[in-house]
Write a structure and sequence with these properties.
78% helix
């Protein structure tokens, strides 16, 4: 019977991958914030909020 060593566990790689995911999420969040504040997104966000709130009020008024 041949001895097969267990697979190596490299916790440093998981930590690096986790850090890269966090950096990617932070970059996306910053791009969204920049778009919402300077890129004309503020008006679109306001329209979206008005639409959602209007739909909620309409559905609430239909409940008997």
């Amino acid at each position: 019977m041949r001895f097969v060593p267990p697979p190596r566990h490299d916790p440093g790689q998981a930590t690096a991958e986790y850090a890269l995911v966090l950096i990617g999420a932070a970059v996306i969040a910053l791009l969204v914030i920049a778009w919402a504040t300077d890129g004309g997104g503020a008006g679109r966000i306001g329209e979206l909020f008005d639409l959602v709130l209007g739909n909620v009020i309409d559905r609430a008024s239909q409940v008997e």
